[in-house]
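Reopening this one. Same input as before:
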Amino acid sequence: FPVTIRLIRKYLKINSNKKERRNIMKITALETATKKENLADIINVIIEELVKLRFELPAFQKLVRLSRAARTVINNNNYFEIYSRLSDDQKQLIDITLSLEKSSDNDNEYLSWFLLKQEPKKPTTKNIKNFVNYVNRLKSLWQKININLDFITHVRLEQLRDEAIIADIDDMKSMKLIKRYALATILIVTGK
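Same output, byte for byte:
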């Protein structure tokens, strides 16, 4: 049986070096996870790379575990980078937005998490006036929180923004601290 496998590998010119294959899989998974969130997309890119380089494919569960780990590493790196760029005042402002901390200033100046994600209403005089007020408050918040997010690819930024939009206040409160600050920052900086 092992002789048959060796003959097939030799005939098809398949590389069976597991250490080299593992390194290529890791590099490809991490590179892909910077652009894609979906595990199936990451797995497909890894498989394409292995086939292109004529490597023997591993068990599917190895691909799943590696893709999941790569996505987690990239996400955590992005969250930590955003968190480390925020000043204490910016973090406090995000806490106020998430209602985790009370504002000592005029509460009308700040947007709650719910209001931050609010969609414009039908264009009546009152609604337009409210929307202009909302835009001014959002602009003020954006100016206070605005940090450079160029280290995250545009596609991933959109995916993370969508995750922030979907999250309600309870979801945000239950998240790890750095993820909470990161998603709130992304939503504020990129708008919706």
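So the earlier flakiness isn't reproducible anymore. For the record, The CA atoms of residues 96 and 104 lie 10 Å apart.
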